[in-house]
Amino acid sequence: MNNKSINSVKLAPLLLVFVEVANKRSFTAAATKLALSKSAISQQIKRLEESIGQQLLVRNTRGVVLTAVGETLLTRSELLTEQLNIALTELDN
After folding, report:
1. How far is CA 85 from the centre of its chain?
2. Cβ proximity of 26 and 64 under 8 Å
3. pLDDT (tens digit, 9 = 90+) per residue, 20-45?
4. What is the CA radius of gyration of the chain?
5. Within the chain, which residues score under 50 in pLDDT?
6. Is-contact 14 34, C-beta < 8 A?
7. Residue 31 in contact with residue 38, Cβ under 8 Å?
């Protein structure tokens, strides 16, 4: 397995967390949905941003706003979430 594959495997869970935060526009709401602490969500987003070297979210008192890079990544990451959901649904059937 090459480094790119290893990095993708490590980033996948962070991308799934990112999708929740981005769609809910809230660390707190994403933490509730994922049954994680707000701190854990924040740390995972920070790790993702550090890994890709880009800021994805702008935090403010009302929640979060996506950067242009965050918007692009959200579109692609939602496809990952959808594919995972389809695979899990197929396993249940």
Report:
1. 15
2. yes
3. 999 999 999 999 999 999 999 999 99
4. 14
5. 1-2
6. no
7. yes
Q: Which residues are paired to 66 by β-bridges? A: 57
Go through 52-72 and write b for each residue having 16 or more CB atoms within 10 A of its CB, e for each that does not.
Answer: eeeebbeeeeeebebeeebee
**Would you list the DSSP string of 25-91?**
T-HHHHHHHHT--HHHHHHHHHHHHHHHTS--EEEETTEEEE-HHHHHHHHHHHHHHHHHHHHHHHH
CA gap 34, 29 in Å, rounded? 9
pTM comes to 0.85
Q: Position of tokens 């899990």?
A: 88
